[in-house]
Specification:
The protein has about 375 residues and is of the alpha/beta class. It is built from 9 helices and 16 strands. A hairpin with a 4-residue loop joins strand 10 and strand 11. Bound molecules: zinc ion. The site of zinc ion has 8 residues, from loops.
Length: about 375
């Protein structure tokens, strides 16, 4: 597939040279029935290019049709106490600051609906969620879900908030999507619009190549995302880092009509794709050597079958873990996408035989440390 020549955010044709990660599994957050179907998973190149005008990093050979966003798509993180704390705090803050008590909340890309349920419970609000990966279940009164995409034409009544968490990094035509989101907000009576997505600066700081994967076709430096929101007709009311700096949260409002020239931010110094690609590859080689030494000839495991853990395993050629541990029951008993490596529960008996456990996400290091200590694990523990 030929890389696209234009920026999906601002339309500029001034993109940097591509940085290619060949043959990546097309989906990391997916429940596979057996090892055969997991290992036969489709693979495609990730071809990163950065826009010199707005700073957006995109996969220029992305094909959304390659990703199965159906009910087997599983990316809930709420089984982790650290992540749940982040969600609880966000729900409480949004409720308080935007007076959502007793209101109506719309979520665009609600996944299985966990955050919408939490926010509606926190605010005593009613909610409506849209997502193709939603799984039908009995819902509390006042909540309704639709297993499809949402557009401005679906919005027939006012809402007090429009939530869109961990969606924009999955949407190929991001400029058009943000304009549609603005139309949704306008149809909903100009409520607060909340975006949450990873920060590209964090990936660069951590040299975490495992935060680059096929499902994410966009990587947003903070200035880039704010610029694209303004281009789409939003006003940025609040923009902050959350979850140890891994994510950014924006609170937006529809901007008043009237065009003004917006100066693009260019490529911020701390978010340069070129430097990142060179240093991240080297870092990965060093890590593989470090894991091998720490495991001291014994089997080892990665803790975390989320995107980070799966991408890490896929990037490590030739030195694969025996298993991957995850606290999400929906993933346990499954197989890591793109491999034949089993996903086990934290109480799996095989864990005590391992020489090394690598924690994929530093934000979960403390809670995992507690579990390992309780289990009497005596091997090495390394955190990425
Ligand atoms: Zn651009």
């Amino acid at each position: 597939m030929k890389p696209r020549p234009d920026c999906p955010g601002c339309g500029s044709e001034s993109l940097t040279a591509p940085f290619c990660l060949p043959r990546q599994p097309v989906v990391l957050n997916y429940r596979f029935k057996d090892a055969d179907s997991a290992s036969r998973l489709r693979r495609r190149d990730v071809t990163l290019r950065q826009c010199r005008k707005c700073g957006l990093v995109c996969n220029a050979t992305f094909d959304i049709g390659a990703i199965p966003y159906d009910e087997n798509y599983e990316n809930r993180q709420s089984f982790s106490p650290a992540f749940q704390t982040h969600l609880d705090k966000l729900a409480a803050e949004l409720t308080q600051r935007n007076a959502l008590q007793g209101g109506r909340i719309l979520e665009v890309g609600c996944g299985k609906g966990d955050f919408l349920r939490l926010l509606c419970e926190t605010a005593g609000a009613r909610g409506e969620g849209y997502d193709t990966s939603y799984e039908l279940r009995a819902e509390p009164a006042g909540l309704s879900f639709h297993k499809r995409y949402v557009g401005a034409l679906d919005v027939q009544a006012p809402f007090d908030a429009v939530i869109c968490r961990h969606v924009v990094e999955h949407v190929p035509e991001i400029g058009a999507f943000l304009r549609e989101l603005r139309a949704i907000a306008a149809a909903a009576g100009d409520p607060v619009v909340v975006l949450e997505t990873p920060r590209f600066e964090w990936i660069v700081e951590q040299l975490s190549l495992w935060d680059v994967f096929y499902e994410h076709c966009n990587y947003f430096p903070t200035a880039s995302l704010a610029h694209l929101c303004r281009l789409a007709g939003f006003r940025v009311v609040r923009h902050r880092q959350v979850f140890g700096g891994q994510y950014q949260v924006l609170e937006l409002r529809v901007a008043k009509a009237g065009k003004r020239a917006l100066k693009p931010p260019g490529i911020p110094e701390r978010a340069r794709l070129g430097d990142f690609s060179r240093r991240a590859r080297k870092h990965l080689d060093q890590l593989a050597a470090q894991f091998s030494q720490a495991a001291a000839g014994r089997a080892w495991a990665v803790w975390g079958a989320g995107a980070k853990g799966v991408a890490l395993v896929n990037h490590l050629h030739g030195f694969k873990p025996r298993c991957v541990v995850d606290s999400n029951p929906a993933k346990q008993g499954g197989v890591l996408p793109g491999s034949r490596i089993p996903i086990v529960a934290p109480d799996d008996s095989g864990l005590l035989e391992l020489g090394l456990i690598v924690i994929a996400n530093p934000n979960y290091a403390r809670e995992i440390g507690v579990v390992l200590q309780r289990r009497g694990f005596t091997g090495r523990v390394l955190t990425l």
